[in-house]
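Quick illustration, no need to memorize.
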Amino acid sequence: MTHNVIASKFFIDKVRDNCAEHSRTTAISCNSRLSWFPLSAAVSDNQAAMRRLTQSYARTWLGLMVALGLVACAANGPPEAAPDGFVFESFQADGKAESVVVLAPGCGGVSDKDHTQPMRPLARRLSAHGHHVVIADYESAYGMKRTCHGGARLEDVADAIALAADQGRVAAGLSDPIALVGWSLGGSGVFLAGDRAGADRVVALYPDCTPFASLSVHIDYLVLAGAEDRLTPLSECAGIRARSEANGAEWVIYPETYHGFDYKAFRGGLSGQRNASRDSFVAVKYDAEVAEDAHRRILDFLDRDDTAD
């Protein structure tokens, strides 16, 4: 069933605190775009009333997206409690672990309804292939709130990913190799965390590319995205795609495919409209065939059998 949301255009400024500091040590660009979410709102001539309606519906919409953990947002904000002593969920490898793989969810974190999200099902498949898997639940680690509404600093997401990698090393008894896989906000997180986590392979599914000017030349990348993604548009990845492909990165673009293509929670899709003119678009939509192909590619990409030492 397709759910239609009659929407007004609602802009959320990405907070740019600490951007200058980040740009000195990373490839992050300070010119982050404005993010917007489709919000159900009635048309009103009274601007104050319209604003109150918009804010009210914003909370409803963002609450849905937080619950399902999809919308990408790489906003900066004040850090929450440090994850000292926090132990991330992990999946032991069948037999001797050949690598550590860290999975980073989209904003909204990891749902208890794991059948609706790709993290735990993929973790089980990876562990069956001989990988020790850790889920970098940065929301729980840092006590983050409203991560789809500017409540997550990308630096904290990346730090949580690096911490999860360290825990995986200890549990698996391995110093390397390390691989990172991230979805949406988590995809941006694994881009940033790659070098600091000591990763040699990184997979990003429909990431927000706007905070980045380039990617590490020391890491092998696989990027999986939908050609029709309107939440984290492929057009905004043009620069880093060209530069990373020149260094051997693989970008797989699925035609007629949208954001969240491997989240079963979005069977049937969720539509939005930009404004009162009803210029509608599909915001997120699950695609079983694409999801299986993407996950098979991830398994193949992380298979270490063909690695020459």
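Residues 1-81, 273-277 have pLDDT under 50 and may be disordered.
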